[in-house]
Amino acid sequence: MRLGVLVSGRGSNLRNLLDRGFEVVAVATNRPSCGGAQIARERGIPLGEFSQRRFESVEARDQAMRDWLISRGVEIVVNAGYDRILSPGFVRAFPGRILNVHPSLLPAFGGGMDAVQRALAAGVKITGCTVHLVTDEVDAGPIILQAAVPVLPGDTPETLHARIQVEEHRILPEAIRIVSEQIDAQSTPLRK
Ligand code: GRF
Predict the structure, then answer these.
(1) Average pLDDT over residues 16-43
(2) Bridge pairing between strands 3-7 and 98-102
(3) CATH classification of 1-94 is 3.40.50.170, yes or no?
(4) For the chain, which terminal residue's Cβ has fewer other Cβ atoms within 10 angstroms, N or C?
(5) What is the model's pLDDT at position 187?
(6) What CATH number does the domain located at 101-192 have?
(7) What pLDDT, on the 0 to 100 scale, is given for residue 112?
(8) Residue 24 exposure: Cα atoms within 13 Å on the Cβ side
(9) Nearest CA residue ID for atom 9, ligand 1
(10) Which residues are known to be catalytic?
């Protein structure tokens, strides 16, 4: 499956997908200076730069990004540390084909940023990560895979996030395979 990966941050999930041989045909970002964008440049992957200030509205930006991804033949969109909510027009263009990785065991600590800090502040003993399908409701689409990690004494947001990311790098590729297989199965014509 041809992947389009959306990034705003360091890009470790993007790097992991590339190292594992996934077919990433496009990387799009709202932050052209982020680590993920730099990885795309280094690896020679077409990079779409969609800074919000170049567009009149969120919808206009998302439309441009959608059209660019479609023009690249993207079949599955992966939000790998993408920090913007996708507008309904974008979500509709890739039904059941947008995955997001979130650093908590949803539905706990959903609905925005700082999930790791919030888990730590809440004093939970177990947290983790979730890969789910993106719908119009933030962090609430169908869950594909989750992985749990312990919160250890003395953890900081950084040490806890690092432990969570080890699991993200394991379950995001697996979730992409699951969704790819589901899409393939749906598009296989029934034989009589
Ligand atoms: C990940 O922890 C992901 O769960 C969250 O943003 C972070 C992105 O990390 N949505 P990276 O940029 O892939 O290193």
Answers:
(1) 98
(2) unpaired
(3) yes
(4) C
(5) 81
(6) 3.40.50.170
(7) 79
(8) 31
(9) 81
(10) 102
